[in-house]
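Q: Could you fold this chain for me?
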Amino acid sequence: MRTTALRKGPSVALALLLTATSVAACSSGSTGSYCDALTAAEADWKDAGATLKDPASAARFVATITTVEASAPEEVRTDWASLRVLAAKFTVAKPDLTELTKHMEGFESSAKRIETHAKETCGIDLGS
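A: Sure. Below is the predicted structure, expressed as structure tokens.
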């Protein structure tokens, strides 16, 4: 993900966020509740771009992320918290793009860890 693109506006931030968080089916395993939470959230993820354009919908999306975060394994729980904080910035009518840019720069490494972990643990590719 390129954080410099975020300066072009919230639609680019939404696209970056979606790239990092699109969800597919998970396989069962020792982290089954985590994979189950990702699967249950799938419908919310599909419309995340449109969701983040509306503060009330963004707040519901944050609640979905919070649910996934609660079941996330320790090694990625902080990364999901980072995603939650980023998405929460869209719960206001006019997000502060400077703050979004700062947070997105920190989120880039979290997104990579989430993607890698989801693929290895749940058999899903969040990067596609």
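A (continued): Confidence is low (pLDDT under 50) at residues 1-29.
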